[in-house]
Amino acid sequence: MIRKAIIPAAGLGTRFSPATKAVPKEMLPVVDKPAIQYIVEEAAASGIEDILIINGRNKGAIEDHFDRAFELETLLERDGKTDLLNLVQAPSRLANIHSIRQQEALGLGHAVLCAKSFAAGEPVAILLGDDLITARKPCLKQMIDEKEKLGGNILAVMEVPDSEVSKYGVIGGKKHSERIYRVDDMVEKPPRDEAPSNMAVIGRYILNPEIFDILESTPPGKGGEIQLTDAIRRLGETQDIFAYQFIGKRYDTGDKLGYLKATVEFALAREEFREDFYAYLEKLLDEGI
User: pLDDT, tens digit, for every residue of 268-283?
Assistant: First the structure.
Protein backbone atom coordinates (compact mmCIF):
# COMPACT_ATOMS: atom_id res chain seq x y z
CA MET A 1 0.00 0.00 0.00
CA ILE A 2 1.42 3.38 -1.00
CA ARG A 3 0.86 5.82 1.88
CA LYS A 4 3.63 8.38 1.39
CA ALA A 5 4.50 10.85 -1.36
CA ILE A 6 7.41 13.18 -2.04
CA ILE A 7 7.07 16.47 -3.91
CA PRO A 8 10.44 18.03 -4.81
CA ALA A 9 10.00 21.81 -4.81
CA ALA A 10 13.45 23.22 -4.19
CA GLY A 11 14.19 24.57 -7.68
CA LEU A 12 14.81 28.26 -8.23
CA GLY A 13 12.29 28.65 -11.03
CA THR A 14 14.60 30.86 -13.06
CA ARG A 15 12.53 30.40 -16.23
CA PHE A 16 9.82 32.50 -14.57
CA SER A 17 12.08 35.33 -13.39
CA PRO A 18 11.49 37.96 -12.16
CA ALA A 19 8.15 36.64 -10.82
CA THR A 20 9.99 33.91 -8.90
CA LYS A 21 12.46 36.30 -7.30
CA ALA A 22 10.13 36.53 -4.30
CA VAL A 23 7.40 33.96 -5.05
CA PRO A 24 8.14 30.21 -5.36
CA LYS A 25 7.28 28.98 -8.85
CA GLU A 26 5.13 26.29 -7.26
CA MET A 27 2.96 29.05 -5.78
CA LEU A 28 2.21 30.71 -9.12
CA PRO A 29 -1.58 30.41 -9.52
CA VAL A 30 -3.34 28.39 -12.17
CA VAL A 31 -6.65 30.27 -12.12
CA ASP A 32 -7.13 30.62 -8.34
CA LYS A 33 -4.99 27.87 -6.82
CA PRO A 34 -1.20 27.59 -6.70
CA ALA A 35 0.15 24.91 -9.01
CA ILE A 36 1.45 22.78 -6.15
CA GLN A 37 -2.04 22.50 -4.63
CA TYR A 38 -3.22 20.59 -7.70
CA ILE A 39 -0.36 18.15 -7.16
CA VAL A 40 -1.21 17.65 -3.48
CA GLU A 41 -4.88 17.20 -4.38
CA GLU A 42 -3.96 14.45 -6.85
CA ALA A 43 -1.90 12.67 -4.20
CA ALA A 44 -4.67 12.94 -1.61
CA ALA A 45 -7.29 11.73 -4.08
CA SER A 46 -5.06 8.70 -4.74
CA GLY A 47 -5.08 7.65 -1.08
CA ILE A 48 -1.80 9.24 0.04
CA GLU A 49 -1.78 10.05 3.75
CA ASP A 50 1.58 11.76 4.28
CA ILE A 51 3.30 14.15 1.88
CA LEU A 52 6.83 15.50 2.21
CA ILE A 53 7.61 18.68 0.29
CA ILE A 54 11.32 19.14 -0.42
CA ASN A 55 11.82 22.89 -0.08
CA GLY A 56 14.64 25.30 -0.76
CA ARG A 57 15.55 28.70 0.60
CA ASN A 58 12.93 31.46 0.47
CA LYS A 59 10.09 28.97 -0.05
CA GLY A 60 8.30 29.40 3.25
CA ALA A 61 5.18 30.46 1.35
CA ILE A 62 4.63 26.81 0.37
CA GLU A 63 4.60 25.69 4.02
CA ASP A 64 2.34 28.60 4.94
CA HIS A 65 -0.14 27.70 2.20
CA PHE A 66 -0.70 24.22 3.63
CA ASP A 67 -0.86 25.47 7.21
CA ARG A 68 -3.80 27.00 9.05
CA ALA A 69 -4.34 30.77 8.79
CA PHE A 70 -6.15 31.41 12.05
CA GLU A 71 -6.47 35.20 11.78
CA LEU A 72 -7.95 35.01 8.28
CA GLU A 73 -10.18 32.07 9.18
CA THR A 74 -11.50 33.89 12.26
CA LEU A 75 -12.28 36.97 10.17
CA LEU A 76 -14.11 34.98 7.48
CA GLU A 77 -16.06 33.03 10.09
CA ARG A 78 -17.06 36.25 11.88
CA ASP A 79 -18.31 37.77 8.64
CA GLY A 80 -20.25 34.65 7.70
CA LYS A 81 -18.20 34.04 4.52
CA THR A 82 -18.50 30.27 4.72
CA ASP A 83 -17.58 29.54 1.09
CA LEU A 84 -14.36 31.52 1.34
CA LEU A 85 -13.59 29.96 4.72
CA ASN A 86 -13.86 26.47 3.24
CA LEU A 87 -11.54 27.43 0.37
CA VAL A 88 -8.95 28.83 2.77
CA GLN A 89 -9.08 25.78 5.03
CA ALA A 90 -9.05 23.19 2.22
CA PRO A 91 -5.24 23.00 1.64
CA SER A 92 -4.50 22.18 5.29
CA ARG A 93 -7.07 19.37 5.28
CA LEU A 94 -5.81 17.46 2.23
CA ALA A 95 -3.19 15.29 3.97
CA ASN A 96 -0.46 15.36 6.58
CA ILE A 97 1.98 17.83 5.00
CA HIS A 98 5.63 17.75 6.07
CA SER A 99 8.57 19.80 4.83
CA ILE A 100 12.34 19.53 4.70
CA ARG A 101 14.94 21.76 3.09
CA GLN A 102 17.36 20.60 0.39
CA GLN A 103 20.53 22.33 1.53
CA GLU A 104 22.25 22.26 -1.86
CA ALA A 105 20.87 22.21 -5.41
CA LEU A 106 22.45 18.90 -6.40
CA GLY A 107 19.71 17.57 -8.65
CA LEU A 108 16.43 15.70 -8.52
CA GLY A 109 18.08 12.52 -7.28
CA HIS A 110 19.58 14.39 -4.34
CA ALA A 111 16.21 16.02 -3.57
CA VAL A 112 14.56 12.61 -3.41
CA LEU A 113 17.39 11.29 -1.23
CA CYS A 114 16.56 14.00 1.31
CA ALA A 115 13.34 12.04 1.96
CA LYS A 116 15.04 8.79 3.02
CA SER A 117 14.14 9.04 6.70
CA PHE A 118 10.59 10.10 5.79
CA ALA A 119 10.13 6.99 3.64
CA ALA A 120 11.24 4.78 6.55
CA GLY A 121 11.64 1.69 4.40
CA GLU A 122 8.33 2.02 2.54
CA PRO A 123 7.74 2.44 -1.20
CA VAL A 124 6.97 6.05 -2.07
CA ALA A 125 5.27 8.05 -4.76
CA ILE A 126 7.16 10.97 -6.27
CA LEU A 127 5.23 13.79 -7.94
CA LEU A 128 7.04 16.63 -9.69
CA GLY A 129 5.41 19.99 -9.17
CA ASP A 130 5.79 21.16 -12.78
CA ASP A 131 3.52 18.45 -14.16
CA LEU A 132 -0.21 19.01 -13.78
CA ILE A 133 -2.31 16.11 -15.04
CA THR A 134 -6.04 16.16 -15.58
CA ALA A 135 -7.73 12.77 -15.61
CA ARG A 136 -11.05 11.23 -14.65
CA LYS A 137 -9.11 8.87 -12.41
CA PRO A 138 -6.05 10.56 -10.85
CA CYS A 139 -2.83 9.63 -12.64
CA LEU A 140 -1.17 8.53 -9.41
CA LYS A 141 -4.15 6.33 -8.53
CA GLN A 142 -3.90 4.69 -11.95
CA MET A 143 -0.25 3.92 -11.20
CA ILE A 144 -0.95 2.60 -7.71
CA ASP A 145 -3.51 0.21 -9.14
CA GLU A 146 -0.98 -1.03 -11.71
CA LYS A 147 1.68 -1.54 -9.04
CA GLU A 148 -0.74 -3.66 -7.03
CA LYS A 149 -1.07 -5.95 -10.05
CA LEU A 150 2.54 -5.91 -11.27
CA GLY A 151 4.72 -5.26 -8.24
CA GLY A 152 8.08 -3.70 -9.01
CA ASN A 153 8.45 0.00 -9.67
CA ILE A 154 6.21 2.16 -11.87
CA LEU A 155 7.05 5.22 -13.98
CA ALA A 156 4.47 7.36 -15.78
CA VAL A 157 5.24 7.86 -19.47
CA MET A 158 3.70 9.55 -22.47
CA GLU A 159 4.48 9.49 -26.17
CA VAL A 160 6.23 12.64 -27.41
CA PRO A 161 7.29 13.75 -30.91
CA ASP A 162 10.80 12.70 -31.92
CA SER A 163 11.77 16.37 -31.99
CA GLU A 164 11.11 16.65 -28.23
CA VAL A 165 12.80 13.53 -26.82
CA SER A 166 15.87 15.56 -25.84
CA LYS A 167 13.75 17.37 -23.22
CA TYR A 168 12.93 14.23 -21.23
CA GLY A 169 14.18 11.06 -19.67
CA VAL A 170 13.31 8.37 -22.22
CA ILE A 171 12.73 4.64 -21.68
CA GLY A 172 13.78 1.66 -23.71
CA GLY A 173 11.98 -1.65 -23.41
CA LYS A 174 9.29 -3.98 -24.66
CA LYS A 175 5.54 -3.78 -24.38
CA HIS A 176 4.32 -5.97 -21.51
CA SER A 177 0.56 -5.40 -21.86
CA GLU A 178 -1.84 -2.64 -22.78
CA ARG A 179 -0.28 0.67 -21.68
CA ILE A 180 2.52 -1.16 -19.81
CA TYR A 181 6.17 -1.45 -20.87
CA ARG A 182 8.91 -3.44 -19.18
CA VAL A 183 11.82 -1.02 -18.96
CA ASP A 184 15.33 -2.24 -19.74
CA ASP A 185 16.99 1.14 -20.30
CA MET A 186 16.59 4.82 -19.44
CA VAL A 187 18.44 7.77 -20.91
CA GLU A 188 18.26 11.31 -19.55
CA LYS A 189 17.62 13.92 -22.28
CA PRO A 190 19.18 11.97 -25.15
CA PRO A 191 19.94 13.49 -28.55
CA ARG A 192 17.18 12.69 -31.01
CA ASP A 193 19.24 10.08 -32.86
CA GLU A 194 20.27 8.30 -29.63
CA ALA A 195 16.86 8.03 -27.94
CA PRO A 196 15.80 4.39 -27.32
CA SER A 197 12.14 5.34 -27.97
CA ASN A 198 9.81 8.30 -27.92
CA MET A 199 8.19 7.26 -24.63
CA ALA A 200 9.11 10.02 -22.19
CA VAL A 201 9.04 9.81 -18.41
CA ILE A 202 6.93 12.56 -16.88
CA GLY A 203 6.73 13.64 -13.27
CA ARG A 204 5.15 10.65 -11.55
CA TYR A 205 7.02 7.68 -10.05
CA ILE A 206 6.34 4.89 -7.57
CA LEU A 207 9.64 3.50 -6.33
CA ASN A 208 10.60 0.85 -3.82
CA PRO A 209 12.71 1.91 -0.81
CA GLU A 210 15.93 0.44 -2.22
CA ILE A 211 16.13 3.53 -4.42
CA PHE A 212 17.46 5.53 -1.46
CA ASP A 213 20.52 3.34 -0.88
CA ILE A 214 21.24 3.49 -4.60
CA LEU A 215 20.94 7.29 -4.63
CA GLU A 216 23.48 7.52 -1.81
CA SER A 217 26.11 5.94 -4.06
CA THR A 218 25.03 7.52 -7.37
CA PRO A 219 27.69 9.91 -8.69
CA PRO A 220 26.77 13.19 -10.37
CA GLY A 221 25.67 12.65 -13.96
CA LYS A 222 24.37 14.92 -16.69
CA GLY A 223 24.71 18.58 -15.73
CA GLY A 224 26.85 17.70 -12.71
CA GLU A 225 23.72 16.70 -10.78
CA ILE A 226 22.64 13.46 -9.13
CA GLN A 227 20.13 12.14 -11.62
CA LEU A 228 17.13 10.12 -10.48
CA THR A 229 17.18 8.48 -13.92
CA ASP A 230 20.66 7.04 -13.26
CA ALA A 231 19.53 5.59 -9.93
CA ILE A 232 16.39 4.04 -11.45
CA ARG A 233 18.52 2.41 -14.15
CA ARG A 234 20.64 0.79 -11.42
CA LEU A 235 17.53 -0.23 -9.49
CA GLY A 236 16.42 -2.03 -12.63
CA GLU A 237 19.42 -4.36 -12.36
CA THR A 238 17.74 -6.12 -9.42
CA GLN A 239 14.05 -5.17 -9.64
CA ASP A 240 11.35 -4.85 -12.28
CA ILE A 241 10.81 -1.37 -13.67
CA PHE A 242 7.53 -0.83 -15.50
CA ALA A 243 6.41 2.20 -17.45
CA TYR A 244 2.72 3.05 -17.52
CA GLN A 245 1.23 5.15 -20.33
CA PHE A 246 -1.28 7.00 -18.20
CA ILE A 247 -4.75 8.13 -19.27
CA GLY A 248 -5.09 11.89 -19.01
CA LYS A 249 -3.66 15.19 -20.19
CA ARG A 250 -0.41 16.62 -18.92
CA TYR A 251 0.56 20.29 -18.67
CA ASP A 252 4.16 21.42 -18.17
CA THR A 253 3.76 24.44 -15.92
CA GLY A 254 7.52 24.77 -15.64
CA ASP A 255 7.44 26.10 -19.21
CA LYS A 256 5.90 29.51 -19.89
CA LEU A 257 3.79 28.33 -22.81
CA GLY A 258 2.72 25.23 -20.91
CA TYR A 259 1.76 27.39 -17.94
CA LEU A 260 -0.38 29.63 -20.16
CA LYS A 261 -2.08 26.62 -21.73
CA ALA A 262 -2.87 25.19 -18.31
CA THR A 263 -4.29 28.50 -17.10
CA VAL A 264 -6.57 28.87 -20.14
CA GLU A 265 -7.78 25.27 -20.17
CA PHE A 266 -8.29 25.04 -16.41
CA ALA A 267 -10.32 28.25 -16.57
CA LEU A 268 -12.45 26.92 -19.43
CA ALA A 269 -13.10 23.77 -17.41
CA ARG A 270 -14.67 25.86 -14.64
CA GLU A 271 -18.42 26.28 -15.08
CA GLU A 272 -18.47 29.78 -13.57
CA PHE A 273 -15.92 31.07 -16.11
CA ARG A 274 -16.48 28.93 -19.19
CA GLU A 275 -19.11 30.88 -21.12
CA ASP A 276 -17.79 34.40 -20.52
CA PHE A 277 -14.14 33.44 -20.89
CA TYR A 278 -14.74 31.53 -24.11
CA ALA A 279 -16.63 34.52 -25.53
CA TYR A 280 -13.71 36.75 -24.55
CA LEU A 281 -11.19 34.50 -26.31
CA GLU A 282 -13.33 34.43 -29.45
CA LYS A 283 -13.50 38.24 -29.37
CA LEU A 284 -9.71 38.41 -29.19
CA LEU A 285 -9.40 36.16 -32.23
CA ASP A 286 -11.94 38.21 -34.15
CA GLU A 287 -9.94 41.35 -33.36
CA GLY A 288 -6.73 39.70 -34.53
CA ILE A 289 -4.99 40.11 -31.20
Answer: 999 999 999 999 999 9
